[in-house]
Amino acid sequence: MERKKITFTVLAAVVGLGTLLSACGNQEEVKPAASSSPQTEANKFATKMKISMFNQGTFNAAAPIPPREEDIQRQMLEKAMNIDLDMTIPQAGQATTKLNTLIAGGDIPDLLFLKSRSDLAQYYDQGVLADLTPYLDQFPELKKRFAKDSWEATSYLGKTIGVPGYDNVNGISRSYFIRNDWLKKLGMKVPTTPDELFEVMKAFTEKDPDGNGKNDTYGFIGGMNKEGNLQTYGFDSLMWMFGVNPPSAIDVKDNKPVYLFIDPKMKEALGYINKMMTAKVVDPDWVTMNTPDLLDQKLFKGKVGFMIRDARRLEPDYQQKMKEIGGEVPEWIVIPPMKGPYGDQIVERKSFQGNSWAISKKADKDKIIRILSMLEYMFTDKEAYPNFAYGIKGIHWDVVDGKIKNKNSELSKEVKEKYLWVDHYRMPRRGDDAEYFSFQNPKTAEAFTNNQQYVGLTLPGNLLTADPSDTLAADRTRFINESLVKFMSGKDPLTNWDTFLKTLDTKFDMQKYKDTAVKQFKEAGLIK
């Protein structure tokens, strides 16, 4: 497939728009919402400007490209900013090659969407990208739109060289699921602390909560991926109760790095999980749980009372699978994470802001101002927001009883396929916007919203980049993961914890890793 390139031109009138409107049955339905924000004033930018955009941030690179007269979002951007937008959408898997070809030929796009911080830093070092620091104070709404840690991810060598791209989604995939029907049957309350959770898991295992007279239920099941990494499969969520997590979880406190995977509190977390293993409240199949699908099967069968799963498992299609596989739809509820002994109450840490928008160094001051104005409009204009986040008014969303209603879940397959191209513009959608996901079960939206208060800040360790001279990096990480699994499963007693730390230092040169972290934290201004 050839790469797709769209050249947009602003028309004096919206030619051909009537065709689309009449096809939808209501001409008023698909008109973009008018905005009264300063950015959209006709005299804001008197001179029309051409802006080229390299958009690998699209949520669907394979989506067909509509004629300009049907592209509501494109028209909005061009009208609001008085621009001609020339957007290139690279074929999936070929974005880096295409962008490097453009750069090598001197044809650098004015606005580039980059998917990693390493790419952002690399292109800046190559002299491709502009320093945006002198301009951002002119855009207070854009600065407020993203959290401090997101802006830190777009900083490099003391300069801001990018604008955060789209929000990552947090507070849904690692939800605390528990069988409320089992709690009721056993006369127990929703647990709020690690100790209470342990007692609930023990009861779920030993007191026949499903009433079938068989010893076939368990309090918990987690797993690890095929590489032996504990992250994302449930056990890491239990570790967060103690404020720690596996590699490469690094915080900064009192002007020093804190390596959470070897912190003394990690020993406590491993001791807690080992206590679960010893009491046999963990389904022994945990050692084979190396894909999300396998964990879902355990959820559907209904023989485990507590799990860490995606809140979308409350949606109707998953509820149907529970009925088909387990014979019933259990009363699963999503509860707040436990509050640990040190006050930690974390469902997960906010995902690192790897993606970003960058601007070509070839862009002059006026063009930089125009591009930042466009981003501020896309990401902060309240009236424009639903047109980017949800799609076309009257088709993908509408105003019902004075509130915006996302209609995506109601659309037929044919309509969804016809308008796949709206995914090119969804980047402004907020990561905590429940309406964006168009949940069908109100309990899913409630769980997602409630979980947001337990999403911790991104850890500074995410800013670190690999040291090419650190030849022991892969072996060190593997050793840490293997050791944590041995400690929590009881294959290695926790009395050997100090031996583990010493081996890290002597055999795997942990000091080199620490020195690299300190150096990069200083460069980022996180350590003085």
Automatic annotation (TrEMBL):
UniProt xrefs under PROSITE patterns: PROKAR_LIPOPROTEIN
Coiled-coil blocks: none
Pfam families: SBP_bac_1 (PF01547)
Entry keywords, A to Z: Cell membrane, Lipoprotein, Membrane, Palmitate, Signal
Cited InterPro entries: Bact_solute-bd_prot1, SBP
Signal peptide (from-to): 1-23
PANTHER family registered for this protein in UniProt: ARABINOSE-BINDING PROTEIN-RELATED, POLYGALACTURONAN_RHAMNOGALACTURONAN-BINDING PROTEIN YTCQ
Official protein name in the record: Extracellular solute-binding protein
